[in-house]
Model the fold of this input.
Amino acid sequence: MSGNRGDTMNTELPKVAGLFDLSGKSALVTGATGSLGSMAAKALSAAGAAVTLSGGNLEKLEEMAGIIRNAGGKAHVINRRPDSEENVDAIVQTALDNEGGLDILFVASGFNKAGGVFDTALSDFDAIHDANVRQTWLICKKAGEVMIDQGRGGKIVVTSSVRGVVAADNGTAYCSSKAATDMLTKCFATEYGAKGITVNAIAPTVFRSPLTAWLFDEEGRGAEVRANVLKRIPLGRLGEPEDFVGAIIFCSSSASNFMTGHTMYVDGGFVID
Done:
């Protein structure tokens, strides 16, 4: 039998205590003030990690850090986005300076501006691919370099979308950027695997955020659009930020040590054929 380690059955139960414990780990979250990024920061902290928060809004970063600290966690702030090598170096160095290392990277930074192909300016197309592909590549490259030098493995989790595999008629820029994100995940996983670094993506469908609040309205256009989206979702509802906590911790912990290069759809079944 494949995987057999002897002639007798192992009678011990698997050890599950501590499987999702991140105590003593150093985690970095980019886009830490967005709906998914802030939930990731809080979830990683709740699991025991010290969290470095990166983003473009200093006031919101300090507010998020205060929430974590008030709950007994450790949080550090750097008011930069991963949009240049200089900024990426500074972001990662903040985690190294404060925590002495980096064990987890969660990439929640990104950008979208919906529009049909003839309504999308080249500058918007470039901005979407810059934020979702180029910046993801930059921060994953730097984090991987640090994790390899440390020699103790690591966890990288990036944010994709169901729109990486399901097209939208107003999303040539966004959908193509998320398809590229999925392939980046596979390529980084291939390169980093031998060093004990797993790289996976979490792909949401529509979930509650300031940008999607209108879809949760009970009347008007939001209700109409939501009804059309729900036709594809077997669970019959849109997502909430809390729905991603389990996937965030799973991909960031030893529970996922033998999973890499995958896109995990947290979507209520949206991508089911």
Summary: The radius of gyration is 19 Å. The chain is about 40% helix and 15% strand.
